[in-house]
């Protein structure tokens, strides 16, 4: 049954522009959580952004209807797959002149196997590496140019008086939890990011949107999982589960892929 929740990390302000919206659901026997967030702005506000993330993961009350043996206070621990995207507002600490010089000499997309020019000075990469936030999350290699800040309607980086340094403020992170085999051992089939890119052709904002394509594995479902009336034909749904369970029964240690397009 799809569920949603939202949180403003600035509840006292008149305009609640910072916070998160989340939706979760079960697909067969696998649980998903999608979070999109807009975190505190400005170069120097790293601690505030980390605080925003902590508030979000500890305050989103999901799931409410799905049966869980133990519900973790960290909402991202309650699901098999978690995707967190949005304007996370982390910046590059490299001076603007050096970033612009590098951009003028660089062709995109970058080869995925090469280290990115200035990601060693990216605030989010530092937060991920030192464990200050987003514990257990991963990010695919960035091969596209910075997604912020552009003059709206153009492909030109900020020419206003503020002269913002180009940065990767818009990101997609992902996380998965290990699944337990019948033998009691933990097993994880890696969640794969097949594509991670930006869309430079969209010029209506001072940001460029990012998008991704992922491949994961689905487990057969259970009859105890509540369904949303009207969203599924229950007989068709349950027949699909029975067929998947029958196909999997010959090899409990094997895995299967369900491709939904």
Automatic annotation (TrEMBL):
SMART domains: IPPc. Keywords: Membrane, Transmembrane, Transmembrane helix. The chain crosses the membrane at residues 20-41. The keyword Transport does not apply. One of its GO terms (biological process) is phosphatidylinositol dephosphorylation. Residues 1-222 form the Inositol polyphosphate-related phosphatase domain. It comes from the Eukaryota. Pfam families: Exo_endo_phos2 (PF22669). GO terms for molecular function: phosphatase activity. The keyword Membrane applies. This is Inositol polyphosphate-related phosphatase domain-containing protein. The lineage of its organism: Eukaryota, Metazoa, Ecdysozoa, Arthropoda, Hexapoda.
């Amino acid at each position: 049954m799809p569920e949603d929740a939202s949180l403003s990390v600035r509840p006292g302000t008149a305009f609640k522009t910072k916070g998160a919206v989340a939706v979760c659901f079960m697909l067969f026997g696998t649980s998903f959580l999608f979070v999109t967030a807009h975190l505190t702005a400005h170069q120097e506000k790293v601690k505030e952004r980390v605080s925003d993330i902590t508030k979000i993961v500890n305050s989103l009350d999901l799931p409410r209807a799905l049966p869980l043996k133990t519900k973790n206070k960290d909402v991202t621990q309650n699901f098999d797959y978690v995707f967190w995207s949005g304007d996370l507002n982390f910046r590059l600490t490299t001076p603007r002149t050096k970033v612009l010089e590098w951009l003028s000499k660089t062709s995109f997309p970058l080869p995925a196997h090469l280290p990115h020019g200035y990601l060693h000075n990216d605030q989010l990469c530092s937060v991920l590496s030192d464990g200050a936030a987003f514990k257990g999350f991963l990010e695919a290699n960035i091969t596209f140019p910075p997604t912020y800040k552009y003059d709206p309607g153009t492909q030109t980086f900020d020419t206003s008086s503020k002269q913002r340094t180009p940065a990767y403020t818009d990101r997609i992170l992902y996380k998965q939890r290990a699944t337990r085999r019948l033998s009691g051992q933990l097993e994880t089939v890696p969640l794969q990011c097949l594509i991670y890119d930006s869309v430079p052709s969209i010029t209506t904002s001072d940001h460029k949107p990012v998008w991704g394509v992922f491949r994961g594995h689905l487990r057969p479902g259970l009859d105890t999982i509540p369904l949303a009336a009207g969203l599924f034909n229950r007989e068709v749904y349950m027949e699909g589960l029975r067929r998947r369970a029958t196909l999997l029964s010959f090899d409990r240690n094997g895995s299967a892929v369900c491709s939904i397009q």
